[in-house]
Structure formats: C-alpha cells, structure tokens
Amino acid sequence: MKCKRIRVGIFAFALALLLSATPLVGLADNSNTDVYEFVTRWGSSGTGDGQFASSYGIATDNRGNVYVADTYNDRVQKFDSDGNFITKWGSNGTGDGQFDSPSNIAVDGRGNVYVGDVLNYRIQKFDSNGNFITKWGSNGASDGQFNVPSGIATDRSGNVYVSDVWNARVQKFDSYGNFITKFSVANASGIEVDNRGNMYVVEPMLSAMVKNDSDGNFITSLYYWDNPPFLFIPNDVAVDNKGNLFVIGSSGGTIEVQKYALQQADGQ
C-alpha cells in the first residue's frame, strides 16, 4: 500500500512517500493496525509553479487531483495525483479571488473548492478551475463571523464546516454560506468530515485529533504522542472517498503532510 507524505520547511513544501512499511493505529477502529509506505514526492521552495511557501492546507477531489493552499504565496495550486501542475489562482489582497494567508482548503462532491482566507476572516468558494463563485464571513464572534477560520471541510450533502479557532467553535453552513448551527470545540484547528458524516477535529495545543458525530457529539480521540514517530503538533486532517487519510502538522521545525493509504492488518 502507499503513503504520500508532504514536507514543508519554513519556505518549502514537498510531497514524499515512505519506502518501508510503518504501523499506525487506525482512527475508525482502534483495534486495527494499519500499514503504509511512501510512493513519491514533489515541490520545492519558491514562487514558481509547483513551488510553495509555508503551505498549510491540502485537499483532493473525486478525480484524485490535489489542491494546496500555498499560504505565503497567497494562492491555490492544483496538481494531478502524480504531482503534475495543472493550474493556480490567487494573489494578495481583499478582492474576490484574492487571499491573505489562505491556510486551509476543501473540495465538495461537485468539485467546488472552499478556501479558508484566514486574515480576511472569510471563506471563498470557487469552481475546480479557480473561477470565483461566492464568499461569506467577516471578523467577529457572531454567527457567520470568524476569528481565524483555520480549518474547513464539506460533507456528502454539501454542507461546509469551519473551525473558528479563537472563537473556540465549529460553525456549519450550507454550500451558499447560510449559517446552520455551531458547537464548541476548544483549540480547534483543522477539520474533516468523512462519508458517514463523522467529523475529525485537530487540536494542536493538545497534540490531538478528536472525532465527533455530525451533531458534535464526542466519539473518540487520538493523541499523537501515543503514536511515534508521527506528528507531534497536527494542524489539519483530510479523508478522501477511498478512506485515505491526510494529516498535516509540525515536527522538528518543519511542516509535514502525510497521506496514508489504508491497509488492514492480517485477519482484519
């Protein structure tokens, strides 16, 4: 099986794969031990196509394309699953399609791309080619407002979940940005929703990932110091439609994203 890993230095980002199998406790069933290995990598420091500057967000679509929130370059880059550059969009600013530190990204079932535009305190929505569709949000603590929207995810119904870090909550919207509900999550950062509607919320200050149901009820948690040599401070998480798990976080002065292709242990 395959595990893709992305490394980012202070101004660098690379996608890498393990060459040997390494055990990891699965999120869905803590009794299973899953095995993964590296496959490939791409990326370097810079501003050119396929280069990155402190990238913190990653997502995939149903066709296997990879979207990266290239944070300090204030743009989104799109690649195929082998790392071949497809397109990019964005620049620094406050206008439609512009960003100020885009740090997280999600793709819905129709291929629409949602970007957490952190220092503009908003969410922007695009089609798969980067054409602007809509936006919502402003700085504040009311419903539909944000104070550092650092994590974003979508569910099968097209609803959008945003982890609103300094407001210590997750907000839920429809695909047009209309507010639905909210629930408290301390230290929330990255967030993901799987095909069953379960939510995975990363809490960096606790070096933990917490799993909740679609109403925010606690299911289970995973603490990374229990799973060496993996990430110590996770920032974001993603689960694709094949069950592959992506986790991004900091370790040893770098930012690292790992993709895990799940392989059940013998007998599972």
From TrEMBL:
NHL repeats lie at residues 39-82, 90-129, 137-176. Residues 1-28 form the signal peptide. Transmembrane segments: none annotated. Gene3D superfamilies: TolB, C-terminal domain. The keyword Transport does not apply. Keywords: Repeat, Signal. SUPFAM superfamilies: Calcium-dependent phosphotriesterase. InterPro entries: 6-blade_b-propeller_TolB-like, NHL_repeat, TRIM-NHL_E3_ligases. GO terms for molecular function: zinc ion binding. This is PKD domain containing protein. It comes from Peptoclostridium acidaminophilum DSM 3953. The lineage of its organism: Bacteria, Bacillati, Bacillota, Clostridia, Peptostreptococcales.
